[in-house]
Amino acid sequence: MANALIIVDMQNDFCEGGSLAVAGGAGVASGISRLLASEPDRWSHVVATKDYHVDPGAHFGDPPDFVESWPRHCVVGTSGSEFHPELDTGRVEAIFHKGEHAAAYSGFEGHADDGECLADWLRRHDVDQVDVVGIATDHCVRATALDAAREGFATTVLLELTAAVAPATTDVALRAMDGAGVTLHGQPVIRAA
Question: Name one GO biological process term (predicted).
Answer without folding.
Answer: pyridine nucleotide biosynthetic process
